[in-house]
Amino acid sequence: MRIRAILLMLALAITIIQVSYELAYSSQEEAIIKKQIKTWEHLCSTYPIDNSCHELLIVKALTDDGQISKSIFLENAHRIAQDDNENLLIADKDSNRIFVFDSKGSFIKYFGRKGSGPGDLIRPFNIQFIKNNVYVYDSGNSRISIFTKDGIFQKSTRIYTFYNDIAIADDGTYFAVPLATRSKDNILHKISSDGYFIKSFGEFPTGIQNMPELWGRLAINSIKREIYLAYSYLLKAQIYSFEGKLLKEVPIAFKAMESREKENLRNINGKTQEGPVWQVIDVIKATDNGFMVLKTYPRIEFKEYDYNGNIINCYWHFSNWDTPPAKDFIITDIAGSKRKFIICYEGKYQPIEVYEEK
C-alpha cells in the first residue's frame, strides 16, 4: 500500500509539472502573438497606403470546400503559371504533382507522380508555360522536365546545381539564381536549353560587400531580352541583359520594410553573427510595362515599375497580421483596364487566392 501511495504521488507530481509547463508555454506563445500583432498594427498605421494605389478585392480561393471533399487539395503549392487557355497550372511541391484548374477555378486534372522515372517529379519547384509546353523545375531530380499542356511528358534536361529560382526564355535558355555565392560574378547563371553551363555573371547590389546567401527571385522578358532580379532580403531589383550586362539597379519602395532591410544589411555586411533575417520582397514578375514586385506584409502590396525604374502602378489589399509570404503570383487583364491577380502563398495547405481591382 505504501508503494502504491508513493506511485500515486509521483504520478500526481508529474501531472502538475506537465500542466504547469503547458500553461507557461501557452502564456509565452500568447505573449509572442500579442507582440507580433502590435508590430503589425504599428507598421500599418505608420506607413499608410498612398491614395493613388488601386484597392483589390478577393473574389475566390482555391481549393474550395467542395473540391476538398473530393480529395482535391493542395499540399504545398509552390509556383503557378497560366497556359494559353487561361488554365491555372500549380506546381505542388509536397504532393509531387502539377494541378490544373480552369479560369473559373474548377479543377480539371493533375499530372505527375513521385519518382525519378520519365515524367516523375520530386519537389517540383518552379513552373512556366512557354510555346504550348509546360516546363517544370524538378528540383528533387535536378532536372527541367517538359510536358505538353495536356500533361504528356516530352523530355527532361539535367541541371547540375541546386537553384533558388529559374526563369526560362522563349528560346529555351535558362537563367538561374544559385543558392549561395562567394563572388559578385556568380549571382546569375546562364544555361543552354540542353543543360550546359554557358556563363555566370552579376554585380553585388550597391552597399553590399559580401552576400553568402542570395535568395533572389527572377523574371524575364524575352522580347526585350531582359532579366529582372529581386533580392528577397534587400529593397533592390536589378535589370540585366541576356548577355549579362547590368542595365539598372532599382530601389523598391516598400516603406514599411525599410527598418527590416537595415537590420538585414547589418547582418549581411558582417556587423552581427547572423545572416539575413527579414524577407522584404516576396516575388518579382515581368509585365508589358516593366516589372512588378509583391510583398504580403504588413498588407498585400504590388508595385509596378517601368523599364527606367519609375513606379507606374500600385495595388493593395488589407491582409491579416499572420498572412504568409507569397511564393508566386500571376497578373491578367480583365474587363476594361482592370487587372486580376492570383497569389500563391508559402506553407502547407495554403489557398491560392484570386483578387480583382475594386
For the structure shown, list the relevant keywords.
358 residues; single chain; alpha+beta
Quick gist of this model?
By secondary structure, the chain is an alpha+beta fold. The chain has helices at residues 2-46, 65-68, 258-268; strands spanning 54-62, 77-82, 88-92, 97-101, 107-111, 124-130, 133-138, 143-148, 153-158, 163-168, 174-178, 188-191, 197-201, 216-221, 226-231, 236-241, 246-251, 283-286, 290-295, 300-306, 311-317, 326-333, 339-345, 352-357. The longest helix has 45 residues, at 2-46.
H/I helix tally = 3
Q: Tell me the span between the first and last alpha carbons.
A: 75 Å
What does the radius of gyration come to?
23 Å
Mean pLDDT level: 88
How many discrete structural domains? 2
